[in-house]
Amino acid sequence: MSDILFLAHRVPYPPDRGDKIRGFNVLKFLAARKRVHLVAFADDRRDMGSDSGLTDHTSIIWRGKSRAVAALQAMLTNRPVSLAAFDDDAVRAAVSTVLTTHDIDTIYVFSSQMAQYVPTDTTARVVMDFVDMDSAKFAGYGRTQAGPMGWLMRREGRLLGTYEAKVAARADASLFVSDAEAALFRDQTGAERVFAIENGIDTDTFDPDASFVPIDLPPRTIVFTGQMDYRPNVEAVTWFADEILPLVRKSYPDAGFAIVGRAPTDAVKALGKRPGILVTGEVTDVRGWLAAAAAIVAPLKLARGVQNKVLEAMAMARPIVASAPAAEGIDHADTIAVGETAEEIATQIIAILSDPDAARVRGMAARRQVMQRYGWDARLSPLTALLAQAIGPRAHRDAA
What we know:
The chain is of the alpha/beta class. It folds into two domains: 3-200 and 377-388, Glycogen Phosphorylase B (Rossmann fold); 221-374, Rossmann fold. 44% of the residues lie in helices and 16% in strands. It contains 16 helices and 13 strands. The protein has helices at 18-31, 67-77, 81-85, 89-101, 134-144, 147-169, 179-189, 231-251, 266-271, 287-292, 308-315, 324-327, 342-354, 356-373, 376-380, 382-388, and strands spanning 3-8, 36-42, 57-62, 104-110, 125-131, 173-176, 194-196, 221-225, 256-260, 277-281, 295-298, 320-323, 337-339. The relative contact order is 0.11.
């Protein structure tokens, strides 16, 4: 039986942030069916030398290239910064070792930055898991930002979009996290063999009745969870603190806001100096914070694909208010409240705080929806058919 080579831009375990959650569950799904060899970057020293027990061979390479160096290399070579940042000879050597010492019939590429390591002459099946359309994200940044940084974002969106289209043309399957994201990619690139493989959620772990350490919060605390050096999350909590929370406090002056997640930027830390706003930094278990919240918010102005933070809150049976972009990729069956403007989001939060019983009923409905719709085995089951397909003729794999 031939093996799978899994390429990841970040070690996909422990599954404690959005991309690692998807990566880990895909890896687990594949490893239950075939022998898998992993080559991945690490950007957290705690991940160096870690082992999931799921793979036969693992190579973890430290990604220490600075953003400044990556940007300079990208400018000199007319490449997207995203590619230059992940260009590494040690990874290239590790990939070569696996391909020459093992019978690999499938290369699973997690995130477009890793597609540069797929050899042009490979006969293996190539499954490209883009997750989100990153070029659209950077193009969105470029439309809203002026000056040199806006120019850099527009450049990244343009070059990365061209690269994504080339990668899809030479892959046997291109995967995205939602039907909307897959449709956007098809529309903008004309690519074929594009499929949606949605994210799931571990509803046994994220269960209000599971065992976890409880957190004591004031009764009207509103909670946001996420990686707090990720630009859309930073923008979301800033918008909430500046414009939405003051509206809520007109009805409930004691309403608080807890920003829960690792690596808060200086801008996020500054929010924690305001009355009633708590910035936690990294926590060992987010479930206690979710369970203690009067409401969970996901006020992202820019969001791509499926938001794990929303699925986790739904699984924990919490009342949720999300922006339209944050809710777009999720089949929530109206179990979460959605708002477009600061006023609409504030109104939805006030309604939750005003009627805790109704909020509790809606939270339980959200959990039922997640259990019916978002189990990982069900979400990943289409991979079985993709991996079983015969490898047919494909475009020449020119270096992307």
